[in-house]
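Revision sheet: structure tokens.
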Amino acid sequence: MVQRILEAGTIESLDPSAIPRLRMPERATVFSARAARLRQLADASNPIAGYLRLMAVLADAQQHVLADFTAPTPSRESIELNQRHSMPIVPALTDARDPAWRDVLFMLLDRIETAGALTPALAQLVARLRTTEAAALDAQADAILALRFADIEPAGAPFIMAALQVLWTDVASRIAMSDVPYVDAPGVCPVCGTMPVASVVRIGGTHDGYRYVQCGLCSTEWHIVRAKCSNCDSTKGIAYHAMDAAEQSAEDEQAKAERARNAPLKAESCDECGTYRKIGYQDKAYDFEPFADDLASLTLDLLMSDAGFLRASPHPWLWPEQSREADEPDQADQPR
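Predicted:
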């Protein structure tokens, strides 16, 4: 089979209705597929293999809880209002968050305990989360969703985020694609308004050859043309960086360029905004899962940091250890 590759200019010239704009999360497999990929990446001699296996247990717990969980969906009036104003259909930053997310958190902690995945330090963290007052948990959720790094407790944040992911993924999986509006703000999820984690060029069916970015909260994917910055929408100064290519000797430039072309995971950098976001190619790694592969490729983050680029957005399961003074998020404080 010959892989069909479409350049940015070609894609933009097509009838937009011919390109599937969205890929809604597959409720039955969204987290289990992520767990499987995390284990696969951990088994590949990954330097953070232990953490990846723990997060695989957490993803399995998410899938188990999601199977029997149902959150309220937006009303028809709310959907139409957001459509008229080109706003995300179920915004994450809201005062009307379903309080059931805290029950989800405790169910996830139960599943992790049952799986026997608790080290002494993790057992202490779980016990602390269980005894944290509801208002304090809500404050942590608010800080995570708003990227207020100074207010985030890094150790507990992945578990809080995991509970929020179950809530929003449940809603996103039951929303009709036709109800999701086109949003005015570039680089944010049209379902929940959260920033994406990484992107993937998919193969097969109607999505063949198209690039999608994946939301870090609700797992919705939306189409973005190639060779365009997923953070600022610029088409200038886009470059691609691969870890395998960086490890090649400087003398072997031809081999280095070839390995860069064939790398299943790259960092797409933008000179206009000075950020990068990772991109994977399903024709080179069929099981590529944006959320999992982004988490498992910290070495590439170090490469990009050395090159002077900042992450366009943090990984939802990996938060910065150092706090900051200001309330507004600063990319310089995000993990690189």
